[in-house]
Write a structure and sequence with these properties.
The protein has 3 domains: 224 residues; 217 residues, no CATH class; 267 residues, Sandwich (Jelly Rolls), CATH 2.60.120.200. 53% of the residues lie in helices and 15% in strands. The protein starts with 5 loop residues before the first helix and ends in an 11-residue tail after the last strand.
Length: 746
């Protein structure tokens, strides 16, 4: 035997293949070779994966979960980066019934080389980009792509087993592959957070890649040039790349449109809803090779009826699942993930989008394998779909925030199924009449599910016996801002212009503003000249202005001057109704708020009557923070609104011993049970912050300190009379428990 003999070169391959055959032929394991075993097994493993995904938000808050989701997208990109070799395996091994040994071994070798290139070149490059742009953690970025590359290499044998209809080998290896998203992922997350999660995935799939490649390779195969193979596979990659980019594009679009916390809520809903697509696409892997084989034998139109039946059945099953999700998602999220309650309407809308997208996932592999011009055909399908998705999400975001973005995804998903079915019809795979029926059935399903979701949407209405403010409550505090009454000792003034503990900013939030004290001698003249507070005919105005570099040492080296007012020294209360009428400034990085804090200076609790991010003035955030169970918890609602920068609106909250209810322009929009630690006196705050929460997603774009672009910028937060009638106050507290009201004035 010569040195170059395949048998001499790889004895371990023979051992691995022999071991796999022994397992396959064992009577106790023959059941793995049934197609139903794979379908049932993948349901179980995917359910476990979903269960694992449920634990992830327990470890991460909304903002961190959003980062985790973007890293997961990079992991998916890497594990799909085989340059079309999976699709080539379907065409060569399933449709054309080609030389199995030679082609399969060449495909496996090519995937290994691609994986090595990913690890040696793409991972360092991506880490460098992440470090420079500061958009994602560099180390986590590298681990996510490395784990995805290992997955891609481990998936090579699975692809070969599927395409050659080796059901036993395919089932066993595919289930091992899917199992990595269960216990290994959760263990890594529990031990090392996001970094540990992707490190565990890289280790799991690296081991699988080494083991499965040995069992799938053939020592009898003749060496095949790899470059022609990759050149042949690359056009087929167009469809797969387009599909993966489309599926994850909504996360990147949402991240660019939303705050970090809002994007985390959107990502949570997307992860819940899109699990169904992955599950059904995986199940379809064991079905569509048979359809491809029939097309190869009998022609493209031979399977039109079969494809139509599969699409109808899938649409029906998914519609029932989406309908169930519409009903159960709210109680499930409120019970298990209270921090992600805002994701309820997002999840409902995205669950509906899964109906057409799952049908796309089942038809797309057939179109990939039959298309003779993949790049042109992929562009024809996915470029319009991506443009529709982008336009729909941007437009809907203006009217409904992250919920609007989700409905934009649903509309774009239906447009994609129409485009794909029309394409298969043009290729002759599906008859024109069948294509029309598939699209009509999809439209009916999406319309019915949308009607159901909208019917279950809570509608804020004022009960017949409720008035706002509540009837019979006595006014115990009011200020109509004919002038600004700065507190200057007991009985002299109302508002203190900095935090109760003396701070001029909230550095724990990484905010960029310095709160100016306008009283003579309390700040440097250069800082006071920036005039954060003015009173005009419409009421109080709070403005934020950049601080010249030369004056920043007088303002804790912060780049912006702004204003905050509190009633800590003059007024506090237990239970009641309070409201403010204001117009909100527009602009990235601005963060106006109206809120309540306890007089004893503990934190939490806290009631945020309203918070608005200047980059999205078409929604308000209403939140209650507490620590009644020993841990910091929050219940938050994001409420779609008209553009708050264009007119004045009334923001209010009613706080009782049992419930907290938020109001917008006189109608209730959110509610939460009163936490156990929120039965003590609280005072009022109103402020215009910069940076912090509003600064997270675009840290290098929001502010260019003291540059020409912001040197003349003037942002205002206007607070004017609460009631529409003349002379009413900016803030108004009414209480039916006057004996509980505590005031510090004499």
């Amino acid at each position: 035997m010569t040195r170059n003999s395949p048998q001499a070169a790889a004895p371990h391959i023979l051992d691995a293949a022999r071991f796999v055959r022994q397992l396959r032929d064992a009577p106790a394991l023959r059941w793995i070779g049934h197609a139903s075993t794979y379908s049932g097994g993948v349901l179980i493993v995917t359910a476990l994966s979903l269960g694992t995904a449920f634990f992830v938000p327990w470890f991460l808050g909304p903002a961190a979960f959003g980062t985790y989701t973007l890293l997961t997208s990079l992991f998916i990109y890497a594990n799909k980066s085989d340059l079309g070799l999976s699709q080539l395996a379907d065409r060569k091994l399933a449709v054309e019934q080609g030389a199995h040994l030679d082609c399969a071994s060449a495909i496996l070798r090519a995937r290994t080389i691609i994986g090595a290139i990913m690890l040696g070149m793409i991972v360092p490059l991506a880490m460098g980009i992440a470090y420079i742009t500061d958009t994602l953690p560099a180390a986590d970025t590298g681990l996510a792509i490395a784990a995805g590359s290992a997955f891609m290499m481990a998936n090579g044998p699975v692809t070969v087993f599927r395409a050659t209809s080796k059901i036993w080998e395919f089932t066993a290896s595919a289930l091992l592959l899917q199992a990595g998203l269960t216990a290994p992922r959760l263990a890594g997350l529990a031990v090392g957070g996001v970094t540990g999660c992707f490190a565990a995935l890289a280790l799991w799939y690296g081991l699988l890649a080494a083991l499965l490649s040995r069992s799938a390779a053939s020592p009898a195969a003749r060496p095949t040039p790899l470059l022609p193979l990759v050149r042949l596979a690359l056009p087929l990659f167009a469809f797969n790349a387009g599909w993966e980019i489309y599926l994850s594009a909504n996360r990147w679009i949402s991240a660019s449109l939303s705050s970090a916390d809002d994007f985390g809520q959107f990502a949570f809903g997307a992860n819940l809803a899109f699990t169904g697509i992955g599950m059904l696409a995986t199940i379809a892997q064991v079905r569509y090779p048979r359809i491809l084989a029939q097309i190869g034998k009998n022609g493209s139109r031979a399977c039109s009826n079969l494809i139509e039946r599969e699409a109808f059945l899938l649409c029906l099953v998914l519609s029932l699942g989406a309908a169930l999700a519409i009903f159960v998602v709210r109680p499930m999220i409120e019970l298990v993930f209270p921090r992600f309650e805002t994701a309820v309407p997002v999840t409902r809308a995205l669950a509906i989008s899964c109906v057409p997208l799952s049908v796309v996932a089942s038809i797309l592999p057939i179109a990939i394998s039959v298309s003779l011009r993949p790049w042109a055909h992929a562009a024809r399908i996915f470029l319009p779909a991506l443009l529709i998705l982008l336009g729909a999400m941007i437009t809907a975001d203006r009217f409904g925030g992250i919920t609007g973005q989700a409905w934009g995804c649903t509309a774009a998903g239906f447009a994609l199924i129409v485009s794909l079915v029309a394409f298969t019809c043009s290729l002759g795979i599906v008859k024109r009449s069948a294509a029309f029926r598939i699209i009509l059935f999809q439209a009916a399903a999406v319309a019915c599910l949308t009607s159901l979701a909208l019917a279950l949407r809570p509608v804020a209405t004022i009960p017949p016996n409720e008035t706002v403010p509540p009837a019979g409550w006595d006014v115990t505090f009011a200020d109509n801002f004919k002038s600004l009454q700065i507190w200057d000792g007991p009985g002299r003034g109302i508002w203190e212009p900095f935090y109760a503990w003396g701070s001029r900013t909230n550095d724990t939030n990484n905010e960029l503003e310095y709160y100016v004290d306008p009283r003579p001698g309390h700040d440097q003249a250069a800082i006071q000249s920036l005039l954060p507070f003015t009173v005009d005919g419409s009421g109080l105005v709070i403005r934020a202005r950049p601080i010249p570099v030369s004056d920043q040492p007088f303002a804790e080296r912060l780049p912006y001057a702004s204003g905050l007012l509190t009633t800590f020294q003059s007024f506090s209360f237990v239970y009641g109704y309070v409201e403010m009428r204001a117009r909100i400034p527009k602009g990235k990085g601005l963060w106006p708020a109206f809120w309540l804090l306890p007089v004893d200076k503990t934190w939490p609790p806290e009631i945020d009557v309203m918070e608005v991010l200047g980059q999205n003035t078409m929604e308000i955030h209403a939140t209650v923070h507490s620590r009644d169970d020993g841990n910091h918890t929050e219940v938050s609602s994001t409420i779609p609104t008209p553009d708050l920068s264009e007119d004045f609106h009334i923001y209010a909250v009613k706080w009782t011993a049992d419930e907290i209810v938020w109001y917008f322009d006189g109608r209730p929009v959110a509610s939460a049970p009163t936490p156990a630690d929120m039965h003590k006196p609280m005072y009022l705050l109103v402020n215009l912050a910069l940076g912090g929460w509003a600064h997270r997603l675009t840290p290098r774009l929001c502010f260019r300190q003291n540059s020409a672009s912001t040197g003349s910028a003037c942002f205002s937060f206007r607070s004017v009379p609460l009631q529409r009638r003349e002379g009413s106050p900016i803030v108004r507290f009414q209480s039916n428990h006057p004996q509980l009201v505590q005031t510090k004035t004499s």
